[in-house]
Every structure is written in C-alpha cells, then in structure tokens.
Amino acid sequence: MTAKLSPEFTEIAWGERRVRIEHAWINREQADQPLMVFLHEGLGSLAMWKAFPQQLCDALACRGLVYSRPGYGRSTPRAADEWWDADFLHRQAFEVLPALLLALGVEAARDKPWLLGHSDGGSIALLYAAQFPDQVAGAVVLAPHILVEDVAITSIALARQAYEVSDLRQRLARFHDDPDSAFWGWNRVWLHPPFKAWSIEDEIGNIRCPLLAVQGRGDEYGTLAQIHGIKSRVPQTELLALDNCGHSSHRDQSETLIQAVSTFFCSPACAGSGSGAGAGAGAGAGAGAGPGPGR
Question: Which residue, 71, 101, 108, 281, is most buried by CB atoms nearer than 10 A?
C-alpha cells in the first residue's frame, strides 16, 4: 500500500501578506535524484492527488514535491472579498511557485526541477517553463488550458449549479479547510465574461524543455485543440491522447499514464535536459508504452 503523504507547512511572502503553504515531500532521502513538482487542478489540493504522486515518483525513481496553492487545501484560504483576476494563473507561475521553491531550498537554476501539472496546474507549468526556460528540466501537462473553450465554460457553469444544490461542497470539504475559498476563487474567474478572451498561446513559444502534453478524448473541460495548439507553438512537444479518459488522466488511466511518463522521462530527448532523468528510473518505463504523435 502506498504511504499517505505527510503534509508540512512553510510561509512565503505573496502580495502584501504572508501565506501558509501546505506541502509534502516524496522520496525526500533520494537527494541526488531529479525532483518532480506537482501542480494541482482548479479545485485540487495536495490531498486530492491521492496516491498518484507517490506511484509516479516510485516508477521514475525520483523525488517529488506536492503542494496546495494559496486558497486551497490547508494553505491560507482566499479572503471572502478577494476576487482572482484574469492573471491568476500567471501570478501562481511567476510569483507563488518561485517563492515556494526558494523557501524550501530548491535552487531552480541549479536543480532544474521537473513540473507535472493538471488542468489549471498544467497552464501554470507551461507559464513557468516559458518564463524561466533555463530553470526547468522537463514538463508533463495533463489537460492543460492555453485558451478558453466553450466546453469548459459550459462544464464550469454546471459545476456552479452542483455546488449550490448538491453535496459537492461537502465532498470538497474533505480536501479543503475552506471549500468556498477554493470553489468560488476558481469558478468566478472562469465564468467572468472578460476571461473568455484569456489565452497563453503567444507566451508558450518560449518553452525550451522537453514537454509531454496529455489529453483525454472524453475531457469535459477541453478538447484536443489544447494539446495540438501547444505542439504547434512548442515543436518538441510529444502528444498523448487517451481513450476512455475524461479530464483527470491520472485517475481515469493511471497505469497507462505512469507508463507513458516513465518512457518520456527516460527518452533521449529528456536525457540531455540536465535533469539526471533516466539515471535510475524504475521498471515502469516499459518498452512500447511511449506517447505517439497525435494519439
């Protein structure tokens, strides 16, 4: 059985206040191995990843860092009158993540962590990799957003209805000290009419690291246009489209995803990234499991 992550806390200065960040290390004792940083979805948290980060890090023989962004999990909640603006993902990529790494003693320019982001976390990973192209060994993005699609707006509007009339709030309370902080911070900005024009298409062309972009064919929040749009702007991107998979490939197709990430992590393209990838990756890197163009 996979051990449960043990949360710790640190503080960072963000904006005009100090915020507490919930985080957990995986395989911390393996100090000479690459570091994978996990970036959660728009309603996610450290706890909502469940066993996946540990399973992936064990398959890759690497270390991991999982954390809850401000407003989520057991990190400092969003103030009731705090409205996130259209730059909320940029601020996470350019301000919060660098401050957290520094607070935890990770020197990104030297250590060159890997990033694995899901949904909003995938967008944060792309933005960070574009802003700091020499400080990332490689990235894996699951159901990332590079622009706003109608399918996303429709599904997010349905989520609002569910939060107001179903037990969704109670279910989210299992993973967030303040579920209203997490839900309304995310939901209001995505449904704010000006956000429809949000796009990072022009920014991601600066990404230089190896990149694997994954999309479920049944994703209710986005289409394959998202990962194909990444490929057109970041030519070194490898694509993986998964059948029988919705928005959360790490839950819907966990074994397939771990095998694909393992193969990517040990590929020649990643071996030259300066990350030490492949130095001791586990048996999860099975032959024939790799992503193929346009799959």
Answer: 71
Name the burial class of residue 256, with classes exposed (0-12), middle (13-18) and buried (19+) by CB atoms within 10 angstroms of its CB. Answer: middle
Mean pLDDT in residue range 247-252 = 98
Could you give the C-alpha distances from 200 to 37, 84, 268, 289, in angstroms and in order?
21, 17, 28, 30
Report d(CA 64, CA 25) in Å as an integer. 6
Tokens at residue 173, please? 């309370």
CA angle 69, 97, 209 (to 5 degrees): 125
User: Which residues have a Cβ under 8 Å from the Cβ of 174 and sit 6 or more positions away?
Assistant: 47
Provide the token pair at 186: 């995310």
Q: Say yes or no to pLDDT of 283 above 70.
A: no
Q: Show the tokens assigned to 9.
A: 């806390």
Task: Report the C-alpha gap between 295 and 241 in whole angstroms.
Answer: 5
DSSP secondary structure string, 51-68?
Answer: THHHHHHHHHT-EEEEEP
| Tokens 């400092």 belong to residue | 76
In single-letter form, the type of residue at position 82 comes to E
DSSP β-bridge partners for residue 116? 38, 140
Residue 104 to residue 10: CA distance in whole angstroms: 8
pLDDT of 135-168, one tens digit each?
A: 999 999 999 999 999 999 999 999 999 999 999 9
272 to each of 141, 269, 278, 282, how far by Cα in Å?
A: 20, 6, 10, 19
